[in-house]
Task: structure prediction
Amino acid sequence: MDVTPLIPQGRQVIESYGDGGFRVAGERYRGSVLVLPDWSAPWPLAAIGELTLESLEPVLAAEPPVEVLLVGCGKAMAFIEPALREAARARGVALEPMDTGAACRTYNVLMAEDRRVAAALIAVD
Result:
């Protein structure tokens, strides 16, 4: 029995990460990346300490709206300032920090379940 989830054509699946970048839906990204079910884009952050509400604006303004933003913090999960979490929550988005690998895997599962999810991923070597 095939248990592979059916993923609609054109969805942004994270295929791999590491070596300073990502492969998403067949396209290679050097550096960090934002991934939503319908689009992906380079993200100029190199470290989780650079995370601001403004750096998340493309996700916060996405249509349809995102409910959960998985924040891939790099090699290890990191603390996100309470003020930033609250500001995102006020816009309807829950920030969920985790290491980048876990964020990639979790994004793929939630996206395949057709959840309103996005990932903001810091690149790892």
About this structure: The longest strand covers residues 14-18. The helical segments are 57-60, 82-90, 100-112. DSSP finds three helices and eight strands in the chain. The first helix runs from residue 57 to 60.
